[in-house]
């Protein structure tokens, strides 16, 4: 039984946000934090820019206030120079400088009048009329001092100097206050810029810290959850690496990790089923290999026996083939002997036919030999006795011809006997010739006897024909037997080759059986090794 860390979750599984959703949320928090920090930074930068702008304006106002103070002092010096100099060139130079200083004074006051500081603006506006008065009085003094022809002593100019000096003193006394106001505005702008820098720095750092802490907390929460769930998965995988397949993980949330754990559990279940099936198949394969080894051994033993029997059958078939070839040779010899007998029988039949013709002639001759009939009667009796013996010998020849194996020898004996009888008949015929004259009286009896002889000879001729026919039939039978024996010899050779091929196949079967047995042993060894490997896993 498999041990589960928390088992499979039955029913509706507890669902939660997926890893992707949590990472997106974490990224969103990070983006919001970055935007917030960026917004704070932008706001602080804007404040710094405003403070810096105010500082620049204050610096410019301070510079312009100093320019107003310097310009009014120079303007006063230009008037005094034009009044006291006796050199016309210097006087004209002083007049030109007076105009330039007047322009500087006016432009500086106009710039101060547009300052962001209200006090500076008020003072600049208040000094505007006074400045125009001073410039006008100064120009009047210089203009009067330039009357060298009409007022060489510059009396009119000297009379106008007190009024100019008075207004110039008023202006000179008012300008320091404006300078101080500009300096105060500058100091305030510096302080504001420093405060803006500090505020922006503090807010930016604080926002960054807050965003960092929030991101760290959210990330820590996500990482801890993932680490805890992934740690259990890692433990399962380590157990699998050690060969323990009975571990299962907790699915928990239906997120990527949960699906991964469920897939891992399913994979382990299927892997366990696979290992169990592999073990069963391995055991069956081992059992089948044992049976195959037994069958291969039996097949080898039977193949060896069959090979021995095939070798013995091949040897016996070879002996049969040799015997059949010997029988064929003997049958050929017998056929040749029968053909010789047939030729001899045909020749004997021809001789018998000739004898019949000779008997006919003898009958005609005997008819005129009446006087020797008595002696011919004796000769006829002898011939009759010879005929009887010939008849008996012919019968014996017929019997001997019916014997297939010994026919040739028997016929040779009969032929010898016939030859002896023929010799005796010849001697008797000589006695008959000697006694022809005395045989006329017995002509009638001789005629009768010769006729009887003719019948016997005809019977002999018929028997010879019968013997010839039987010999011809025996010749045909012998030829057919020789042909059949030849075919049997050919078939026997084919049988011998087939038995030899069977013996070779049986030997090949023996080798295959040995190879099959070796293969079965290797399969059994592999199955045993596979079972040993499977025992290393705990399912």
UniProtKB/TrEMBL annotation:
SUPFAM superfamilies hit by this protein: Methyl-accepting chemotaxis protein (MCP) signaling domain
GO cellular component: membrane
The entry's keywords: Membrane, Transducer, Transmembrane, Transmembrane helix
Membrane-traversing stretches: 21-43, 200-223
GO biological-process terms attached to the record: signal transduction
Ranges where the Methyl-accepting transducer domain occurs: 281-531
HAMP domain mapped to chain residues: 224-276
PANTHER family: LYSOZYME-LIKE PROTEIN-RELATED (PTHR32089:SF112), METHYL-ACCEPTING CHEMOTAXIS PROTEIN MCPB (PTHR32089)
Family assignment from sequence similarity: Belongs to the methyl-accepting chemotaxis (MCP) protein family.
Protein name: Methyl-accepting chemotaxis protein
Organism field: Kineococcus rhizosphaerae
